[in-house]
Every structure is written in structure tokens, then in C-alpha cells.
Amino acid sequence: MSALIQLDRVSVKFRIYHNPNPSLKDAAVNWLTGNKKLNDYRDFFALHEITVKIDPGDRVGFIGLNGAGKSTLLKTISGIYKPHQGKISVVGRITPLMELGAGFDPEQSGRKNIFLNGALLGFSPSEMLKKEKEIAEFSELNDFLDLPVKYYSSGMYGRLAFSIAAMTEPEILMIDEVFATGDGHFVEKSTQRIQQMVEKSSILIVVSHDINQIRRLCNRVIHLDQGNVIGDGEPESIIEQYKQKITSIK
């Protein structure tokens, strides 16, 4: 199985409005006074000229403080965000374990959402039909699959979403703080399934604040800070750099 990720000077920019929803009164005052600053905005670079190559066999952990750009980077690689500048090349099918169930239609049944979510992951209806039974059994929701997911508990919702994603054969596996969902029994089962997916994947990318998980899963760590790569290399040395960063802030 061959896979590759190449980012060349990739930047992602968001626009922050100072007053995104001005009231009618604000608008009137703005018009009368000629003040144009009520709708002013500033550009915020969540990622700034990121250049990274991830090869087959790499198990990469992204670490950094909140707001460093870790989740933004994963969403950019997976195509959710488009880069403001730079180029991304991805070879291989991505299986994202992040924001599970984000593509669910709450008005549709769990069964229909299996096919809807499968389509978002790049699978055809015929491919999902072959996986439907396995998803139903793994999620333990056989008796509830024809119920609209808006009636699901949060645990049921998470179990179905995880089970759909976990039935893929990943070439590129991306995990963003998703290591367990549901009750104790399902947590143990989903953790075992994630480990199987990790072993089968050509490339693994993990975002986590749990340093022990990063140590256990990764052979390479990249340290992000305010949208910039400030460290890339062997796990222990980059983790030590990250710890020093935390200490300096305190």
C-alpha cells in the first residue's frame, strides 16, 4: 500500500469580523457618522507557509497548544479547508476519525445515514451495502437503525458515526482526539478497532494532547505554534521542546 502527503508553503487564512452582526441601530449610526469601522475585519493565519512531507510508514503526531493549528492542518489535508496559498498533494484514500457524525442528516434514519456518511468518505452505495451489516453489528444498534438519528442519545450517535468510519480500510488514517466513544464496553472495543486500523494504515496522523498516546503511536512528532512548524523529528526531542514551551508560558 503506497501513500504520500506533501504540503508546500501551505497557508490557511480566516477572516475575523469585529462586528459580524450589527444591529439596525449600529447600521444607522454607522451611516450617519460615516464610521466604516463597525464592519471592519482582520485576517488571521491559522497556518502559515507549512512545508511538510509525510511518507509511507510515517506515524506522525501533531502537538501544540490550543489554537496552534493542529486540527486546521488535518482539515486542510483532508480537503475540508482550502489553502489560501501553497499546494497540497495527497496520494491515497483518507479515513478521518475526527468530528464523527458531522455529516449526519438528523431527519434520516441511522441506516440511511450509513450510506450518506459513506458517500462523504468516498464509498459508493454498493460498497456501503456490503459494509452495512458489519456496521450494524459493531455499533450494536441493529434495533435502532430505522429510527431517525435525531432521537439517538449522544452515545448512540457516536457509536454509529465511529462504526461507519471504522469499517474502512485506511491508507491514510487521521485521528483528532478520537480514541473512545460510548460506554466502557464500547470504549474497549473501539480502542481495539483503532489499533487495528493504525496497524493496517500506510500513513498515520494523530492530533492529541495526550503525550503518552503520541509516544505509543508515533515515530515522528511535529510541533506547531501559532500556525508555524517549530519542531519536526524524533518524538522524545520534540516532546521535550513542547514541554519547555508550556513551562515558559507558565
Overall description:
The protein is of the alpha/beta class. The chain has a domain at 4-92 and 202-249: P-loop containing nucleotide triphosphate hydrolases (Rossmann fold, 3-Layer(aba) Sandwich). The protein is built from eight helices and nine strands. Helix content is 38%, strand content 26%. The mean pLDDT is 87. The chain starts with a strand and ends with a helix. Strand 8 and strand 9 (228-233) form a beta hairpin. The chain has helices at 24-33, 70-77, 110-120, 125-139, 154-166, 184-200, 211-217, 235-249, and strands at residues 4-17, 41-54, 59-63, 85-91, 94-97, 172-176, 203-207, 220-225, 228-233. The longest helix has 17 residues, at 184-200.
Low-confidence stretches: none
Strand content: 25-35%
Mean pLDDT across all amino acids: 87
**Name of the CATH homologous superfamily of the domain at 4-92 and 202-249:** P-loop containing nucleotide triphosphate hydrolases
- Measured distance between first and last alpha carbons: 44 Å
Structural class assignment: alpha/beta
Instruction: State the oligomer.
Output: single chain
CATH architecture of the domain at 4-92 and 202-249: 3-Layer(aba) Sandwich
How many strands, what sense, and barrel or not for the largest sheet? Answer: 6 strands, mixed
